[in-house]
Amino acid sequence: MPTTAPVPTLVDVLTAARTASTALATATTAVKDAALRAIAHELRAGTADIVTANHEDLVAGQDDGLSSGLLDRLRLDVDRVDALADAVEHVVGLTDPVGQHVRGSVLPNGLQLTQVRVPFGVVGAIYEARPNVTVDIASLALKSGNAVVLRGGSAAQRTNAVLVRRIQDAVASVGLPRALVQTIDEFGRPGATELMRARGLVDVLIPRGSASLIQTVVAESQVPVIETGAGVVHVFLDESAPLDRAVDIVLNSKVQRPSVCNALETLLVHERAAERLLPALTARLRAAGVTLRGDDATRTIVPGVLRATEADWATESMDLDLSIRVVPDVDAAMAHIARWSTHHTESIVTNDVDTAEHFLAGVDSAVVMVNASTRFTDGGEFGFGAEVGISTQKLHARGPMGLLELTSTKWLVRGQGHIRG
Amino acid sequence: MPTTAPVPTLVDVLTAARTASTALATATTAVKDAALRAIAHELRAGTADIVTANHEDLVAGQDDGLSSGLLDRLRLDVDRVDALADAVEHVVGLTDPVGQHVRGSVLPNGLQLTQVRVPFGVVGAIYEARPNVTVDIASLALKSGNAVVLRGGSAAQRTNAVLVRRIQDAVASVGLPRALVQTIDEFGRPGATELMRARGLVDVLIPRGSASLIQTVVAESQVPVIETGAGVVHVFLDESAPLDRAVDIVLNSKVQRPSVCNALETLLVHERAAERLLPALTARLRAAGVTLRGDDATRTIVPGVLRATEADWATESMDLDLSIRVVPDVDAAMAHIARWSTHHTESIVTNDVDTAEHFLAGVDSAVVMVNASTRFTDGGEFGFGAEVGISTQKLHARGPMGLLELTSTKWLVRGQGHIRG
Lengths: 421, 421
Known about the structure:
The structure is a homodimer.
Chain A lengths: L9 H16 L3 H17 L1 H17 L4 H7 L3 H15 L8 E6 L5 E8 L2 E5 L4 H13 L3 E5 L5 H17 L7 E3 L4 H9 L7 E4 L3 H10 L12 E5 L5 H13 L8 E7 L3 H14 L3 E4 L1 H6 L4 E2 L2 H5 L6 E7 L2 H11 L4 E5 L3 H10 L4 E6 L16 E3 L7 E3 L5 E12 L3
Parallel strand pairs in A: 3-4, 3-6, 4-5, 7-8, 7-12, 8-11, 9-10, 9-11, 12-13
Antiparallel strand pairs in A: 1-2, 2-16, 14-15
Helix pairs in contact in A: 2-5, 2-7, 3-7, 5-6, 6-7, 10-11
């Protein structure tokens, strides 16, 4: 009689990930880098397969009525696959955080304490219709010694299946376990729910995507989550802000790439600078296609500005929309930020040193800037070499996350028969 | 007509905590230390009130049938109040982590990046019948710049109410807001549930107490949690373990204070050392009152040992119980640990350097030791000066938590009109 192989359960997948992570935790950097080079090679060699599978996802997505923005994020062509392979090779050059000594001491009793960086173990990722995240997270997790379990969503399921198989082939070619990188798309939504409840089997869960996806994961997950959140981002133009600098920074923050989380939402202007700055600044913003909303003071100075509502102060724009409010002073600006910000990034334009330091110390956001565009909140710009996401929570990681933020620590204690008195 | 003050809601309490935390975030160390000294003074001055309230809680607890262990944890007498005040004064001497530079760089474009330590903001604590935690957490939170919201449980409600009022009086006496330290016991269980759902208002939640309390908080909380977990703790006696050192470390780990999380549960013994070590070692353990359970190999070598079950490998003892298993080698010991440990603390007794390093590298626990008693996993022993708890999760903090672990970070970015190209 023929025997049937048992269908693996999600717990089987997670257990295999845990076992594989144990092998990777003590792998040398050289082995991990060899795996990364093999992945880049496999992706390039598999371009035709990847693009074919992606084409099937795109056709299905069009039939399902996905928006053009989602379809563009979903699309992989030959150039984009090549860019993904490049990105994996770039990770080879990054510093391996595993084994780094964080701190240590020799206690008065002679006991030696060392806190060292270790991988988390098993990292879960939940995201939507972005096959590039599959490759990004897999390569960053691998370099930081972690196994990954990926839930990439049904829209990219065929693409992700091919990508994961290629990555597994590459990992196996250097003698590492295939279960280091696994997709659970086949388990559907129940699989995502089970992943969120798998505390003990999964060490950390990273949601990437829309605000509603992230909120669902935050609300439902029993596994510790790193929230990579939305940005309602502010620039405050202080009384002393020079016009040219104000224009440069506001334009760059708002217009350079309005669809991302570090782009500007709300401009706050000191009331004693509003008449000097707003006419020229708003003319430049309008010339760049920005729709302006503002409070009464703004609308008095700049004709034709739409009336801003509380919803405008609270909303991440993702587009060429800007809300403007005139405030009496820096403390009023900081109070507005405390009330409405998502604590991602805020910047002050000022020529006054005390005001700058007051703003830096008092604003409670992941990144607080003086005289710089908010667009610099980015793992690449920060010199991390790669970015897992931008954390807007305060636990574990805050701001752009690189390889370091994909690690935990453990304490090594070396004694010579020490006992406690 | 008389007006009635509106009854504050839990959201009012949490909002007041947030506002108060803003004032504390930029307070100098000198101001925070003055508040701590005032707290110690108020506790001593209020000893009679505290002991009276505590007596009412104790009487109610006896009527409610609380165990003698719980009643002992609940009890505050004159000496214990004095010890609490001493502990608060001790926190004055600890290094203030707020404002410390974690890392920084000047980017190629001249942008200056500095990652600095900042308070979380609002810390929630959920615990049971231990009024000393009220004072401990309040003083550590204050020193690290955080407001606290305390849910101490109904059994200690009268005691905690008096303690919190005294602490608030002290805080106010140095000009800081009373809302820095608040209890929500009056809101009952619904208040605890609401606290766990208050993501955005509370930055981190720390449960302290029984395994079931911690599991409830982990399962229900949408606020990020630091799990301070149970310890199923292991010692492995390697083939080369000297008898005297093995006896010292096992006895100290098991017997010195069996009711705490860093005490030993399971002894693993190399099969080529079992006959040499177990007879003398088990005789000493029995003389100390320890009940022994073991696998077949152990029971062959040591008559009268009870049969160990899987439940024994999985259970935190909290008492004078020890489970013993003979294993073929260090890898089998590590596999047992990977399967059954809660990843709190494990120790190897060995004279072989390679085996020691293999164990240190391969065991995935918060604290991994060589030739030392597991009882050293403790914030006080580690030189932190205080302990918030011992984290058994990997996110944010792992192992003993001191003041540093009550902080987050933020990035300060200083430019001179920098925009992104």
